[in-house]
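[step 3/7] fold_predict: job queued, chain A
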Amino acid sequence: MTALTLSTAAAPGLRADAIVIGVAKGTKGPVVAPGAEAVDKAYDGKLAGVLETLGASGAEGELTKLPAPAGFKAPLVLAVGLGAEPGTSDGPDADAGYDAEALRRAAGVAARALAGTAKAAFALPVDGPGALEAIGEGALLGAYSFDSYKENGRQALNGAKAKNGKAPLAEAVLLGGKPRDAAHKGAVARAVAVCEELNRSRDLVNTPPNDLTPAIFAGIVQAAAKEHGLKVQVLDEKALTKGGYGGILGVGSGSAATPRLVKLSYTHPKADKHLAYVGKGITYDSGGISLKPAGHNETMKCDMSGAAAVFAAVVAAARLGLQVNVTGWLALAENMPSGSAVRPGDVLRMYSGKTVEVLNTDAEGRLVLADALWAASQEKPDAIVDVATLTGAMMLALGSRTFGVMANDDAFRTALHEAADEVGEPAWPMPLPEHLRKGMESSVADIANMGERMGGGLVAGLFLREFVGEGITWAHLDIAGPAFNEGGPFGYTPKGGTGSAVRTLVRLAELTAAGDLG
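[step 4/7] structure written:
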């Protein structure tokens, strides 16, 4: 991954391939953002005019390249748009300065544009550790590239110089950061820990399903647990059968790749709070007997994004040494059609003892999550959060960049929504209307896995609520929209796996450790 370093050096004297500066959209044209004073001075204070002549406006994500002035040791200045200038009608409050998400996105755009270069200096606005962390996160996430299956990626893995394509930016130097300042160093360390794990989750989501079966996924978790001193327990098909995990077994029954339930535990000796994160890990979702039509299954390797997010968040919490216990539950299965697959009309006996009539085998995520939620509940955590690419209905409601937040506690739902907003992950609180529960009534079982078509994302949330232990605070994040980006990259978000919800889960753990959630 791209290396992050801090430097108090002036931009003109720094040896690098490019100097990244910020440009904002002012009321009368582009405005050079703080951090680039030395660069602007080298253009005789006329840099904003030069940029305007080149067509720059300061709009978010806009890139403008220009030759560095005489005397600079870097040959290129890369101006990246920050959006509206603080204090303008469309911008943030002037006293607040540029918000973290604007810096994060700008750094991400620049880092991606600088693929193939060895070193870039980021001279973006820095008013403290928070800004440094945001710029660092943007650079690390924006530089991400998944090339393991391409020739240049294989060459890089073998230690050879890539002949085709461009390697990610090798080093990002954050100007304005003090290498010996504890707060500045801590900000960079947090950015590295969170982004390395988030990028690991992206790798998992992007990995083809033939190379990421439930067993392989479980093995990756075991290796990470050993590396970071975490406890891990893997229930294979035999153990799942013995334990009565009918939901996970039912979903996985049609595949030659047998299911797994993975428990990953981080504990802190001084922790007095315990969070449980539960992730949907369908390593490939064909829909089962209720087969998905052509055009709807090509990206279904991403249906394990929830489990990847949970895995990444637990490891990140451990790397940050947070004073909170965090347990991750990864419900892993492959949903395939075969002679042994669960059929519409079958009834499954879940780990909780409840019976579920399966009306649609493509509503399988809620079945594996139900078993994992009940397993998590047995440990009586202070709160449970499940994460899943669960319903197309949530995408219809919120689009492709926003995830839905449901909960059995309004205050907890609000806290999660605020945590997501704080770290720059678009989310929206959603209700759990009681009248929709009636649609899941079954004449042969305790509950059906389908209900009313309208409000399907909320129906799925109500189903999951049935499998949360009594008195336990619980929330459900439906990340079906933002988990996999089928369009072009934007900000620090790449095409493909995005790592959605990782930063929200990490932030929730930090808030819990600090005692800010009660």
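[step 5/7] annotate
The mean pLDDT is 96.
Residues 219 and 306 are 17 Å apart (CA to CA).
exit 0
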